[in-house]
Amino acid sequence: MTSDQHPPEKMMFQLSLRRRGISDQAVLRTMEEVPRDLFVEETDRDAAYRDSALPIACGQTISQPFVVAYMTEQLQLQKKHRVLEIGAGSGYQAAVLSRLAGQVLTVERYRKLAEAARARLEKLNCHNVEVMLGDGLNLPANIGPFDRIIVTAAMEQLPENLVERLEVGGILIAPIGPHHGVQTLVRFSRTEAGIERKELVEVRFVPALPGVAREL
Hints:
Layout: H1 7-19, H2 25-33, E1 54-55, E2 61-62, H3 65-75, E3 82-86, H4 92-98, E4 103-108, H5 111-123, E5 129-133, E6 146-151, H6 160-163, E7 166-176, E8 183-191, E9 194-203
């Protein structure tokens, strides 16, 4: 079943985002245009446009649409921005970012997920996205800097080396808190004076784990 066969669900999908406070028209348009059903497991395609997280391979999840839209809106993206995503997953968030930013580098520790995300993004002509197999908690020194950074897995605390990759004027958004439980979505803004921190909403994400997965 393709995305154009979901008109009632997609209508409710958009309505739900607006009702929950998403107001950025570019974000809403992008959420409508990116076919979420292509980024979920085949058995879950009928549920693709419900406002809920869904399981994907390797014990990971695709975040609920509201969380994807909310985090994207908080980044205040412009076409000139270079974006780093930690945790590619199915590639859905990267596809959304690709339509709003100039360049996107998304890092994934599971080879299976990275390869599948790369194939989906290529199919959708998201040519400004690079999918890298790697450790999002220990990135190579030559990567960066970035105007925006988005972390899509729970971190007990934000690594300093990630903050250092953020340009002055940049924004980083990440779920901070225990790996198993409720985290707080936090927006970090880098200014000439330092880092400003703002707590946003409670969320639940799978843990951000170190290293590249040996299997999968």
